[in-house]
Amino acid sequence: MLCPSTASDSKVVLITGxxxxxxxAAARLLAADGHHVVLGARRTEQLAALAESIEAGAGSALPxxxxxxxxxxxxxxxxxxxxxxxxxxxLVNNAGVMPxxxxxxxxxxxxxxxxxxxxxxxxxxxxxxxPIMRAQRGGHIVNIASVSGLRVDPTAAVYSATKHAVRxxxxxxxxxxxxxxxxxxxxxxxxxxxxxxxxxxxxxxxVEGQMGIAIPAAAIAEAIRYAIDxxxxxxxxxxxxxxxxxx
Length: 247
Ligand code: NDP
Fold this sequence. Notes:
It is a single chain. With 247 residues, the protein is of the alpha/beta class. It has seven helices and seven strands; from the N terminus they run E-H-E-H-E-H-E-H-E-H-E-H-H-E. A seven-stranded parallel sheet has the order 3-2-1-4-5-6-7, with helices on both faces. Helix 1 links the parallel strand 1 and strand 2. The model is unreliable at 1-7 (pLDDT under 50). The structure holds NADPH dihydro-nicotinamide-adenine-dinucleotide phosphate (NDP). Residues 16-23, 41-43, 66-69, 94-98, 117, 144, 146, 187, 189-190, 192-194, 217 line the site of NADPH dihydro-nicotinamide-adenine-dinucleotide phosphate.
């Protein structure tokens, strides 16, 4: 069923990792702006509750199971949005994990999970929307990287590598695509569930000790909204948003 936009500036916005943190905050903010948000993550109960809360406020939300590590799951997420609304205007590649540890701890499964979610997941998203956006002759891909995509710190070698890679592939996509907008948003310390993915307890305690200065997820949602709200000919390429108190 096609559901036309209710307003001329109302967009169909797909958000990966919408079940908590930055993705959830972006979904709430963009839905309040009148966009149709399509919510993807593995925890479908959280997605359903979020969609219900958005629709109770007269917003439009479509929850859908999504595992970004599985190309077929990403394809089905994007197809569900396209079938429902007839277009895909924005993909926010936000899903991510951050199981930090020193390399010599050899937590190889966690390295691979970061590569699978943070890097392959973004590529799967791009692959699923590109044909649609090309056919539409327009669209916007917003990739959530990190300040770890701009610097490297101990325990963050693999996480930083994935986020550097996201910045690199975003720049390549931008150069190849004169009809698409490509934005990289690099958050600093932000309140969310992200530290819960750190399996090394000593590292997790150390990182959680730094979270006192973290900014709310809504601050990153505002940056996503800013990029989306620009006129079609204006592509905000990169935004870095970190706490004032972060070094
Ligand atoms: P959260 O842990 O709160 O959110 C992460 C989201 O990713 C969840 O919704 C989770 O949903 C989803 N996710 C994880 N694995 C998968 C998967 N395989 N398939 C689909 N969704 C998945 O953390 P944040 O909101 O902080 O993280 C959002 C992004 O922001 C990440 O890319 C992170 O790297 C980045 N970032 C965060 C910073 C911070 O300080 N918080 C700083 C810099 C960058 P579910 O588990 O339900 O699948």
